[in-house]
Amino acid sequence: xxxxxxxxxxxxxxxxxxxxxxxxxxxxxxxxxxxxxxxxxxxxxxxxxxxxxxxxxxxxxxxxxxxx
Length: 68
Prior knowledge:
Elements: H1 10-13, H2 17-22, E1 34-35, E2 41-42, H3 49-52
Antiparallel strand pairs: 1-2
């Protein structure tokens, strides 16, 4: 076994082409985002949280990321 500097960032950037494309803006290599309180950037919310996340209702905050 060897030591590498490889970092698996698929949790954020996506592990397949469909998810990876859905997370990107295709402008200057940036990810999609939403602006929250005090101008902070957050990942975009999932539209149907009960289908994508383990939550009770769709009003619950659930962020879209590479692990969907």
